[in-house]
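A sample follows:
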Amino acid sequence: MFDNLDRQVKKVVIDPGHGGTDSGAVGNGKLEKDYTLLISKYMYDRFKDLGIPVAITRENDITLSPTERVDKILSAFGNSNDVIVISNHINSGGGEGSEVIYALRNPDTLAKNILNNIGTTGQTTRRYYQRRLPSNPSKDYYFIHRNTGNTQPLIVEYGFIDSTKDTNFIDNNYQDLVEAVVSAVANYIGVPYTSPEGMVSNTYMVQRGDTLYSIARRLNTTVDELKRINNLDNDNLKVGQILQIPTEAVYEDEENLYTVKRGDTLYSIARDKGITVDEIKALNNLNSNTLTIGKLLKLPSPTLPESTYEVQRGDTLYSIANKYGLTVEELKEANNLDTNILSIGQLLNIPTKEEASSNNTYTVKKGDTLYSIAREFNTTVDEIKRINNLISNLLSIGQELKLPTNQSLETTYTVQKGDSLYSIARKFDTTVDILKDLNNLASNLLKIGQILIVR
């Protein structure tokens, strides 16, 4: 009776549990509200990447009453059964592992698939279940289920905050846990799922009306390949069956791949990549200009100028500057950057040491002092005054200052047991907000061994 309902679901509301004065569960020096916001903001971005309409109940550390939370959920896309609500939480109470709780009005299909996907990340899984209100067993126990109208709400508990094993796993793998949820939802509503790196998901959930032939066409593979990797000896499928599908692993020797997205054409891809349609067709043995969403295309390997660097996963301005014997400020100056945030695939100009030295100046802005500038560039007030022939500490807005060319690279600190952003900020005479900005941190959570830029 739920098949038609399942096929209609097209929108997602994400609910980061707790927040503000409500910290949620506490354990191992961590707060549930920080975890849920970190997880939810990444999840929000991933649904947007996939083109799935998405809303979020809070984007920062604010307090929401149950009524306010429900109002935000129902006002996002309306009180409709085509809305999935993902309420993110961290459990407590001495257990281990992940759970998914779904509403009495909904089938278990999505809850089951989310929990199965979470299990593939290596996290322990417990159960997916419903919980009834003791005083009225016809109603849900949790208000997020009980008061959210016709929507399809699920509570996802990623682990136990008082379990060191679980908190360590979440710290190191929260993005994988989010991808598990996102891919389960995408499969459930029939939207092609791609990973952050552009790889096609390695699983597909069979929908009503699917055949091996239609799935093979949609995912740009063959019936024989689907049968081979799933050990199928016939063409029969069941609704809800999980199939393994070919991924970029089959292209492991290829470096330059592109995953076709909704609205792409060979012409638009060729234009964006600075190549020709004929080059793409020749590399991929294409006989027509027709593309399917999720198709992997080989592209010519780009030849970058020696003075250009393409940002890779895990890069920071500090690591790139260190690699080329530069300072972060020299890199930012050469690329007109006003932030330390980078994106994968971004191209940076790498100045020579001579160019960097010639650009080693700073323009005074409103609020600047010699002390604040010296701190920012890891030098001293006396050194700035000396090389600029200054006889006082007075500055004027727009004034050009020379900076020492032998300034050292930014200082880093390795997080120790018991550290917090506040304690580290005090140690290095800075603020928590500056530390978060320097290190592109979305929350106050730290991991032992994590390397932070401190100035």
